[in-house]
Amino acid sequence: MAEMRFSQSVSARLEGGVLVVAIDNPPVNALSVHVRSGLVAALDYTVNASHIVGLVISGAGRTFIGGADIREFGTPPVGPSLPDVIDRIEAFDKPVICAVNGAALGGGCEVALACHGRIAGETATFGLPEVKLGIVPGAGGTQRLPRLIGTIAAIDLIGTGRAAKADEALALGLADAVVADPLTAAVAAVRDNAGRPLRRTGGMNVPAADSAAIDMAATKIIAKSRGQSAPAEAVRLVRAAGSLGLEQGLAEERATFLHLRDSTESAALRHVFFAERAAGKVETLADVAPRRIDTVGVVGTGLMGSGIAVSALTSGYRVVALEQTREAAASGHERIAGLLDKAVQSRRLTAEARDACLARLETTAEAKDLATADLVVEAVFDDLSVKTALFRTLDGIVAPGAILATNTSYLDPDTIAAATADPSRVVGLHFFSPANVMRLVEVVDCAKTAPDVLASALAFVKRLGKLAVVCGVTEGFIGNRIFSAYRREAEFMLEDGALPYQIDAALEAYGFPMGIFAVNDMAGLDIAWARRKRQAAARDPAERYVEIADRLCEAGRLGRKTGLGWYTYANGERMVDPVVTALIDAARVKKDIVPRAFTAEEIMDRLLMAMVDEGKALLAEGVATRPGDIDLVMINGYGFPAHKGGPMFAAQ
Ligand code: 3H9
User: Fold this and answer.
1) Per-residue model confidence as pLDDT tens digits over 571-618
2) What is the predicted pLDDT for the residue at 382?
3) Is the bond preceding residue 413 a cis peptide, omega within 30 degrees?
4) Does CATH place domain 4-265 in 3.90.226.10?
5) Centroid of ligand 1 to alpha carbon of 27 (angstroms)
6) Please, where in the chain does CATH 3.40.50.720 lie?
7) Which regions form coiled coils (predicted)?
């Protein structure tokens, strides 16, 4: 039978008395207004058609339904609303079964929950990721999911926003079956259920659970929420499902959803969502094909190099890791294998996947073994002469089409590129440590980087599952330049009257996992000290310079590794140290500064302004492309709380 069309994004065909509805709203089949109206039209059509026994809902392409259309948030509501569509599905007299071919997220999962059965394909995923957008599910998710899978499992899924793969969904009772061809199975399920009493999730009771275990699950979510409202609200609503009736629970959920949708927290997280999708997109590269990368060379297998090697291995690349001696290569192999073992222990990797990774790994002390690499990433000591010498050598070894990437944090990649005969093949890949864990990579578009080399670097980072932010050449790139500016401001406040613990407390209350002085202690104070000593001769004597960090280092206080830094450390705890307070006092006296009191608000205002001013400078210089890119770097590399949207967003 010919295709029927219910709206611009919803069509259907009849298959033996079953109306097979397809949602086709690229890119992710979001529940935009014409999808909602199309679903209602399909239900209306079916209700009056005696020859149709029921419906299957499916999604075209790789996704089932990616959720509500986030772009519609903030625009005037247009009916039918999603909760109304979903209530209609659940109450429908004929069976409605969904064929979940891919991701069923947010509103998409809520549509699935309201169906009378859920057949999953092998690549299906189910999740309610609303908390990641600063909201709670708003179309029944917090009320129907606990009825189907129990309160504790629902708190975990909704409170974290994580998605469950098909097998887990089956084990939880969220999917009824996992099959290779969900559409055919769903059509059969509609026929089986026709004329029988239907299983309506909203009509079920929430299974009883131990209240201490519920408390524990809730506490775990709230402890991780770093001051965000949505996770706690989601947990409250899921728990309420056990005591409130469906109607009252849905009303409570709707009110909370609408309130949070209009919050700054949600606006910030939506900004982050869209900034992430925009990052790494370079207009001029739209028609540029990336080069093929199968084998990745990694030079240096220290903390950074081994992390990069692990990332590449777990993403399916073959890796050749180079060290200076055979002994160092053997320890590098051990370090990489150790990281893979840890991933197996924490269940991020299966034992088989680890073995496959190790089979793709070669460690060597012979530079010529890098000849087969399509991309070489260096992670050696951050010294210009070391790096230029290395690039000169690599240039003579790798194939003409191979790409050379530097992981420098502060050196000028153009100078490094100039050591090669073909600087167009050089790009910066600034990973953050530990590279197998941290998502962010600053992709540095050097003066002579060829467009297809940049496109290849972006494709490589994407395949690693990481977040690429493109930036131009400047000392410290986006992140370290902003970090330096805000550290400078923190040190000015130190001299003017604030103490390290006060500044750290203000940052931590704002949502940073750790204040700047505690972070410096963790990273070690000696690297920045060495850089300051190198730069001393070039420093403008009229520029304000705070010497306190130098005095700390001279006193052997190099951070956590020495047990002493901006704080004293004992048994893993940081404590205010009167010796540091005395050093700070002495620095003030030396400059005739009379200390004054700072409020947490003033501290945060000044730190934010320092970040924003530097961010604006980076945009003006063309180093950063969009304010959102700067926000992503600070969120993913420097602990800026995502629910505040990053410094550029927060400053608006
Ligand atoms: C919700 O459902 C609330 C309800 O409870 C209650 C309502 C009453 N809307 O990520 P990608 C765009 S809240 C609009 O690169 P992938 C995205 O911007 C929602 N647009 O693809 C990008 O656009 P562009 C809960 C969306 O294949 C393009 O699609 N749902 C939406 O790597 C491709 O995106 C979520 O939070 C959307 N919902 O991953 C799920 N989603 O090409 C959010 C994506 O112009 N989405 N776009 O840059 C995802 O997690 C991933 O997009 C997904 C596909 C896994 C689906």
Assistant:
1) 889 999 999 999 999 999 999 999 999 999 999 999 999 999 999 999
2) 83
3) no
4) yes
5) 8
6) 294-471
7) none
d(CA 98, CA 111) in angstroms, rounded, equals 8
Amino acid letter, residue 651: A
Helical pair 107-114 and 82-91, crossing angle rounded to 10 deg:
20
The count of other CB atoms within 10 Å of the CB of residue 426 is 27
Catalytic residues: 409, 430, 442, 480
Pull the structure tokens for residue 365: 């002390």
Ranges under pLDDT 70 in the chain: 1
pTM comes to: 0.93
Query: From the CA of 67, how far away is ligand 1's center (Å)?
Result: 7
Task: Calculate the CA 550 to chain-centre distance.
Answer: 36
- The residues lining ligand 1, judged by C-beta closer than 6 Å to any ligand atom, are 27-28, 30, 63, 66-71, 82, 103, 105-107, 110, 129-130, 133, 137-139, 141, 274, 277
Q: What is the pLDDT of residues 127-137, one digit of tens each?
A: 999 999 999 99
- Taking the centre of ligand 1 as the mean of its atom positions, its distance from the CA of residue 66, in whole angstroms, is 5
178-207: pLDDT as tens digits: 999 999 999 999 999 999 999 999 999 999
Mean pLDDT (the chain) is 95
Q: Is domain 479-622 in CATH 1.10.1040.50, yes or no?
A: yes
Shortest-distance atom of ligand 1 to CA 62: 27
Residues 140, 146, 149, 154, CA torsion sign: positive
| 202-236: pLDDT as tens digits | 999 999 999 999 999 999 999 988 889 999 999 99
CATH number of 294-471: 3.40.50.720
Mutate to test the pocket of ligand 1, among 36, 65, 70 (most ligand atoms within 8 A of CB): 70
Q: Which residue, chain included where needed, has tokens 């073909």?
A: 422
- Distance (angstroms) between ligand 1 centre and the Cα of 77 equals 19
Name the residue with the closest Cα to ligand 1, atom 51: 66
